[in-house]
UniProtKB/TrEMBL annotation:
Keywords: Membrane, Repeat, Transmembrane, Transmembrane helix, Transport, Vacuole. Channel protein in tonoplast. These proteins may allow the diffusion of amino acids and/or peptides from the vacuolar compartment to the cytoplasm. CDD domains: MIP. The keyword Acyltransferase does not apply. The chain crosses the membrane at residues 21-43, 55-76, 103-123, 143-162, 174-196, 216-236. It is found in: Vacuole membrane. This is Aquaporin TIP3-2. The keyword Lipid biosynthesis does not apply. Belongs to the MIP/aquaporin (TC 1.A.8) family. TIP (TC 1.A.8.10) subfamily. It is a multi-pass membrane protein. The lineage of its organism: Eukaryota, Viridiplantae, Streptophyta, Embryophyta, Tracheophyta. It comes from Lithospermum erythrorhizon. GO terms for cellular component: vacuolar membrane. Gene3D superfamilies: Glycerol uptake facilitator protein. It comes from the Eukaryota.
Length: 258
């Protein structure tokens, strides 16, 4: 029996738990984007006349992984530690959050990314954010496919470690596992699609730096990848393993249930 979907309770829009969770998503996304985009700007500033290749890619992947680990750990028990509109969409598709909560999260995540990039531009004396882009010579469809695959892996990891009711003690390493997945995906997909996996991570720099080329890839790819992973894990793993007598209700879980 599949999970139910809900628009949200009547009081959810103003409930203190919703406000706290939304604030947590804003702050966590700010932390992640500030460090992630900041690592790229730092490399550009320190090594303007040199090509570091693999070393620079490793530096960027590590910065993103460390920042995401901290961001998720700081918000996991409050909002579920999404820090990513695509992850929120995957949870929505799986029936794990209400539509109202998802909309709140999306607004908070995008605002967090925008504020992070604005402060980066301010603190770096007007340096224009670089953002995420498809590498030269890589086709748009190739970039889209890469973002779908990378985000699928990310969302599947989120479900397995932070959402699955039978995750047990595995939940304690959820922030680390998710951060490792993002770092590994950047090492794989960074040279091709930029390995965003996160519409907020792409939108903040695109808006503040005004770089919109192929920006649609970083919305469609992550949303499709996250949705596929959410459906497969929710209905192919969790629901398939559930016993009929366990279904005492059919309401989406909130962040406190992750």
């Amino acid at each position: 029996m599949p999970r139910g979907y809900a628009f949200g309770r009547g009081d959810e829009a103003t409930h203190p738990d919703s406000i706290r969770a939304t604030l947590a998503e804003f702050v966590s996304t700010f932390i992640f984007v500030f460090a992630g985009e900041g690592s790229i700007l730092a490399l550009d500033e320190m090594y303007k006349d040199s090509t570091l290749g693999a070393s620079s890619l490793m530096f960027i992947a590590l910065a993103h992984a460390l920042a995401l680990f901290a961001a998720i750990a700081a918000s996991l028990n409050v909002s579920g530690g999404h820090v990513n509109p695509a992850v929120t969409f995957g949870a929505l598709v799986g029936g794990r959050i209400s539509l109202i909560r998802a909309i709140y999260y999306w607004i908070a995540q995008l605002l967090g990314a925008i504020v992070a990039c604005l402060l980066l531009r301010l603190t770096t004396d007007g340096t224009r954010p670089v953002g995420i882009s498809v590498a030269s010579g890589v086709g748009t469809l190739n970039g889209l496919a890469m973002e779908i695959v990378l985000t699928f892996g990310l969302m599947y990891t989120v479900y397995a470690t932070a959402v699955d009711p039978k995750r047990g003690t595995l939940s304690t390493i959820a922030p680390l596992a998710i951060a490792f997945m993002v770092g590994a995906n950047i090492l794989v997909g960074g040279p091709f699609s930029g390995a965003s996996m996160n519409p907020a991570r792409s939108f903040g720099p695109a808006l503040v730096g005004w770089r919109w080329k192929n920006h649609w890839i970083y919305w469609l790819g992550p949303f499709v990848g996250a949705a596929i992973a959410g459906i497969i894990y929710e209905f192919g793993v969790i629901q398939a393993d559930a016993q009929p007598h366990h279904h005492t209700h059919n309401q989406p879980l909130g962040p406190e249930d992750y």
